[in-house]
Amino acid sequence: MSKSVKNYYAGGNTAKGFYDLFSSSLKQLDRIFILKGGPGTGKSTLMKKIGEKWGQQYDTEYIHCSADYGSIDGVIIPELSAGVVDGTAPHVIEPQYPGIIEEYINLGEAWDSSKLQENKQEVFYVKEQIKKCYDEAYTIFAEALKIHDDWEKIFIENLDVYKAEELTNRLTDEFFATISLNKKANVVHRFLGAATPEGPIDFIENLTEDINKRYFLKGRPGSGKSTLLKTLAKRAEARGFDVEVYHCGFDPESLDMLIFRELGVAIFDSTSPHEHFPSRKGDEIVDMYEELIAPGTDEKYEEEIEHFSKKYAEKMKLATSHLKESNKLRNELESYYIQAMDYSIVEQKQLQIEKAIKEIEKMH
């Protein structure tokens, strides 16, 4: 019987450009196999096969690819403290302890360079076009963030700071009571979702499927959701509780979710583009607008809110169209590498990794 699979992102296409949180997900591992090689060399397929094989016996974590929905950037087996990751751009992973913790696996050994040389100019051109798509998308996401900031100001200026502090204290008491754990907290940073060529994708339901108590934060931009989460994360860490911190896939400096697995508690921003609703016992809504924002704010600033909402949606749609175009080009780029690959060599590399993981198993 297969064990649990957790899905998340460790990198994302954000208003700050490509944002990388890989090091946080990998810091606990004793062995990391870093795959090198171009697009289409079979990195994602190899990692999925590793995940499927060891996922029959162990819980696994899949790090998803924000550039291509359906592809993965890594697979982790926490119980074995081992993982296999794509270490190519834009999330280049440099070994800290090469040969001891990290090991390079070069899938580039499986391609025929002479075949790639035949399509040299096409590869150069497509790579250049992909970069242009991402540059455009990141520029537009940054413009969308400025609009979002102006939208937020309306609600920030109408937020009751005293009530916000009261709410934070109430939730702190509900979560932790007077308990402190006599240990150092393990804090890991990830993304629950990402802006992808298919639009925004999130894994909230998967990440919280075994959580007994879920708090759904509702409210407008600027109603204090991220600030609340940042404070709760700090308080949990100070008390020794492990924290899974999930950053916003659009603005990585904002937070979207915290999970305290030791307590069986999750609290997350449940507004668009990752809007979810209570669906089981233990689910609770925390309406930040109702609790903290001056009554009548929506009505008073109706025109401005509608203006910002519309402009923001237009920018997000336009940025996503550039990501979609980049994905088409990426598929074209991969095709040049696929026709130059000898996948029997990739299979040998996979067996090499599997042999090493079996050795790790023996030591556990």
UniProtKB/TrEMBL annotation:
Recorded superkingdom: Bacteria
Record's protein name: Nucleotide kinase
Organism: Salirhabdus euzebyi
